[in-house]
């Protein structure tokens, strides 16, 4: 598995590490859509390593991906070690 995430981007400046992804997700939880100067705060939370434009672009990609997942647009793969949900037993 790759160590960084691109969410469909090919530009090297758009490649994010897992640590950056997690930090970004935490920043979005701390600074929600009602927060004044949200993107400045998120950029500060990220340590200034990403521009506000990069953060906004990343957010739009995340929103698109979540919408696609929620609309069943992304197939879910069952792994051999886990039975499909119809076979799971509640205990």
TrEMBL record:
Keyword Transcription regulation annotated: yes
Pfam families assigned: Myb_DNA-binding
Keywords: Nucleus, Transcription, Transcription regulation
Xref: InterPro entries: Homeodomain-like_sf, RADIALIS-like, SANT/Myb
GO molecular function, one term: DNA-binding transcription factor activity
GO cellular component, one term: nucleus
Record-annotated Myb-like domain positions: 8-63
PANTHER family linked: MYB FAMILY TRANSCRIPTION FACTOR-RELATED, PROTEIN RADIALIS-LIKE 6
Protein name, per record: Myb-like domain-containing protein
